[in-house]
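> run fold Transmembrane 7 superfamily member 3-like
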Amino acid sequence: MLHIVLCVLSLFSVINGQVVFDAANCSEANLSNFTNYQYVNVTNAEVVIIVKNIPSASTFFVIQAHSFLNDIILSNNSVPELHFYNEGTNVGLVQVTLGKSNFTFYLLNANKNTTANVLIAVTLYAEKDPIPGGCNLVFDVENAPYQLINYNKNMVEVSVQAPSVFGRTCEENIFSLEIYRIYLPEKEISSESYFNGIEKMITVESIRKHGWRMHNKTNGHNKLRVLYSAYPGIGSVYAMIAVYKTGEAAYVPAVTYACDAKNRMMDDCVQPATPFWKMICGISIAWGLLMCLFGFMFPFLVSYIFTGFIIGALIMYIRKKVIDELLKKTVKNVILNKFLDLRLFHYYYYYSCFTLHIIIFLNRSRASEASKPTTEPVYCIKIIDKVYVTATSMLSHVIIWMAVWYKCRSLRSVIELLLNGMLIASFFFQVFIGDFFIFESNLNYWVVFWAIVVVVAILQGLCCLLQVKTTNSVLGAFTTILAIDYFAGSYVRYIVINTIRRLTVDDFNLAIISPPAQFRDILMYFSCLVLLVCSAIFNMCVGMGSAGLSDTTPLLD
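> ok
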């Protein structure tokens, strides 16, 4: 099979600072039989890569280089010239042979103060194979086989340029793209896992063997642009395959951790970064267990306050997101923008951090805390300030919710049922149906979402005693597991985060959800289920008749 051919680095040798790739033994019959890779260390001096004896059956090849966290430069010339070099951590160039058999490339370290460990690979292709990035209109290199990654705290955007085909024009748009992704191990930012993941995503055969095929939701908008939900801290390797008739070619794989892995490593990307947020997680675990095991003892006080905290946090967070977007779009005066956003809405934000910390707010706040160089006394003052603001917000919302409960006690039961339904609906969309094409439409998404919420609420509300005993179990178990989730380095918390993103983030309906499903995640799901079942059984057995509840206690008054 001539296409998808890899004569890589079992034929490489390093001689006097040069990396030599000799394809003399590669023939049409065995071009794809070589799958070894070559690693080189790049310091201040350039590394010369010589590719020679390219067989006549190959009309072009892709040379690529990958470095862990350090930028490198791959160039056609010893001195990089515009349109003839590529800089980054995952770089590549296309070389059309035009009957020639020998070529020279140059690899440089963009940061002269470090030593970059680099993986190099060369992939040969035939005339029938599409040239990845051959119809480039935007990128700096004429033929751009690499992927461009941009990310923020909510989404990862992967962009490529269209492939070209020998004898066809770029305007014909006759190609198709297959997109793939694999996750690197959770809670691990290391060069070993980084390069292991890349090695699995270089050739077409290897991509299809190891990668998970994704379905691009942006096909109707721009099939060269793919959006993913961001999961900071876990590495993702992205790959694309250009297909034209029987020809196939792979783009250069790209990797991102969706966070500043180079400068902050584990604290910024995985675990709570500061003692304040670690304390919040600890309080959450204790509070969640209290609600699981003893919430039935205070059904009309503690559990109602707990429910009110969550609802209030959701309202405040969504309100702040909406106001922030309005300020960005409509307020031109920077001073006014900062004045409006500095105090009032940040107070709401601190309150939200306390009540919904296990769901979404640690991701935003811990990075800002870790990036502020402060002395210990100043840091302690900031902690006290946050606790003071949080306590003040808690007290105000307790008063409001207790006043509402005093006037309409049935509202508590309705709110708890809806919260349980929202958690279950979020779980189904996160794990099972979130990436279905039909849910690209916001109308379809929210109609089905609220249908699940209502059905769950009705089914649970049909049995009054079951509703009273299990609502605290559901909310308490979820609170406990999501707090543990931060320390475990898993991503169960994104069950709710992605639902809130769908409501507040532009174009998130076009993002591929596909959450990580590794050992830690499965363990967290299983632990949540076990805690929920044990808590419900405990409440049903021990809590029967407690706090004035019985089989005849009315649910609604």
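Residues 1-6, 331-386 have pLDDT under 50 and may be disordered.
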